[in-house]
Amino acid sequence: MAADEKAQAKAEQAEGKVKKVVGGAVGNESLRAKGRAEESKGDLRAAKEKAKDAVKPK
User: Fold this and answer.
1) Count of CA atoms in the C-beta half-sphere (13 A) of 39
2) Average of per-residue pLDDT across 7-32
3) Residues 23, 8: Cα–Cα separation, whole Å
């Protein structure tokens, strides 16, 4: 499950970055904002998974 969450976080980060760059390139501020939001969502998901890994007993 954790690997699935980590992969989803990476996908959100990548998709958000693409939207942000494309939005900036074509001058579409709405698309750029959606990209920033999606990238942030991926960052938060990745941080959550990292925190879960840190407290998991080994």
Assistant:
1) 13
2) 96
3) 22
Tokens of 26: 């074509």
* 24-58 confidence digits (pLDDT tens): 999 999 999 999 999 999 999 999 999 988 888 76
- The DSSP code sequence of 1-58 is -HHHHHHHHHHHHHHHHHHHHHHHHHT-HHHHHHHHHHHHHHHHHHHHHHHHHHHS--
Nearest Cα to Cα of residue 12 among 38, 30, 31, 44:
38
The answer to whether 10 and 42 have CB atoms below 8 angstroms apart is: yes
The pTM of this model reads 0.81
